[in-house]
Amino acid sequence: MTSSATDPARPLPRPAPSRPAYLVLGGASLSHFINDMTQSLFLASYPLFKGGFSLSFAQIGLLTLTFQVTASLLQPLVGRYTDRHPLPYSLPFGMASSLSGLLTLAFASNYAMLLAGAVLLGMGSSIFHPETARLARLAGRGAHGLAQSLFQIGGNLGTAIGPVLIAFFVLPHGRPALAWFAITALIGVAVMSALGRWYADHLRARKAAGPVAAPEQHPPALVRRVMTVLVLLIMSKFFYIASITSYYIFYLMTRFGISEHAAQMDLFVFLAGMAVGTMIGGPVGDRIGRKRVIWVSILGTLPFTLALPYVPLSATVALSGIVGLILASAFPAIVVYGQELMPGRVGTVSGLFFGLAFGIGGLGAAALGLLADRIGIVAVYHICAFLPAMGLLAVFLPDLDGKRAARA
Question: Per residue in 95-113, pLDDT tens?
Fold first, then answer.
């Protein structure tokens, strides 16, 4: 019998280097920081838009819906296409679209231009996330949870710093000051161009090395069932996050009578907690399994969200940080779990999950805006407190890590 080691008809999979490409992961994380910072500047500018254009909560929700649905509809399509036809040099074009959106928002003269700026930001995200998530997985070289966390931590830090930048740089000088942050987007274009070259070189090297063994596929019925559960978990997570990113400032100002500047800083606590949670979720999932992280991070948030609407200001801010930390640890684990459930479809899974995050957040923001106009912003948070209870659905997720270890 001819061994597989000498059988030319059965090429062996190439061994992956043991250490992740940290320089590439750092570049991907920095780019994610810049990309999501521009989005966070958009979300944190809502009080400026509301006052400058006399917008209702429903119109604020429509802004979020426009941005996030644009991203959510395009991301899975981009991811599916690039699974078959990778586009390394599409990365700087995504950042350039975000840059254009930021400039449009800075100099908008009416509500329609605000919506146009939201569309450009959404297009930038739709191009950025699927391909950069694939690049991060390649650069992780087997440490997929760590790579996903390093990639996502940049985005969460960028999201967290947005309210601080608005409070200290934009509020004192007005909405046109947003244009200054186009400089960071230009830096992002340069970084993404360099990452595109690394990605292209990597693809050429893989093609030259020959084919690899096809990854083992899971039964289609299992994939459909598990993907449904993951989508519902993402829905509960990002619906709640939408209530914070879009309306938490108004909630604090209404319930506690604090200034907009102080509310922006309090929002930073929640966003900073999310950044820390994102960094924790991926590596912990590598060690103890993705399912355990998903289970704890979503359902474990419930006691804190239930308490948040009933406590004083200082406790509200502290609880928001805890909620952000626990809740955010789920997403790196969910993304890697989905990639392992559907091997060979990294772009499709990444585009679908990031797209769902944007789309569900947008729909949530629009629905909550309409609800806030009817029952008040404070009452909205009493309702949203129950959303993490959907974490109970994690009981239906199979233990992919355990099955993989058993096969090994």
Answer: 999 999 999 999 999 999 9
